[in-house]
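Q: Convert this sequence to structure tokens.
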Amino acid sequence: MAKFENLDRLLDKPVPRTSTPIVAERLWDIHSSPFTTPLDQFYEEHFSETGYYTRQCRLFNHHASSLTIKTHAQVTDVARLLRQHLQRKEILELMCTSLGPAEQARHQKSINLVIRLVLMMKVGNVEYDCFGGSVEWEAGTLREFVQSCFGQSPRLGHERMKLENTFNGLNLQRIAGIEIKWTDNLLDHLKLKSDDRVVLVFRHAAFLKTQKHSDLYPPGFVDETLRTLALLFPQDKKDTRSWFKKISRASSSPLDCHLVNCGILGAEGRQFENFGFWHDRLVTLKQVYNEARPQSISQRWHDRRHPTEWYTFWTAALVIVLTVIFGFAQCIFAFIQVYIAWKQWAAGGP
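A:
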């Protein structure tokens, strides 16, 4: 009973560590899914002072009167309604009997908060949200809304392009100079920003693994999203794992270790045809990667996309370096000879 009472804490206070499994089960239905992330890591990512759940609750609850839900128990109650595939207006009717304009706005905001927590999608505008980029769910069921967000047919062609096994997050950075930035918003996954110098990557792989059987997302969507992570962070690449450990240590918040444990894609699995939901963003990212030209010696060294050009450049560079070395050596030998001759002349020698 004590664990349930802990959920009566106000939203501006983090979920008690002992109540983490209860909230996770109610929000994400993980009791019916394989869940292997250590509890401590999961708590840090979602329910700690800097976790996703805590940050979203505080963002929406900046003013005490901005929400009609006040406790973590009420958050899980709304999550239960969302999973029943009700119309948005039906959820509103169940949440209150009187729908005055002010009261309805607060209920709408409360629903948007819980959607963000359940789906990790930025739904609904909220004051003090510095990053923006949200979408609105206005009518229909939540499942229909999510389908409309991710169900568009691919529009971009990918002729003469393929996803080689060298196309991964590490090479995006060290060859093309494209920086990876992490996002909590599933809608922003693989989106390019800052003049195509930054790509956003959804950071919660463990969450995705718990949602494989969720009926809120379109069929196959979660599996495909995990395969994009396997593409960017191949499980069998030692250099990728070493690089991931390095950026994890430098990150301001813990990174999900499941990001580098999403599997291995063979040649068949890396075909563009196998990606429907993320097809266009992958095509755009690959185009930017292909068009990028090395800007530093380090980038030139790691850029093996065109082997002939790579060997030609480094052979020419080696010839130039050897020429400089031999030229410098000849200058030194000539100087030594001149110095010896001068010493002999100064000593009155022949």
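The longest strand covers residues 179-183.
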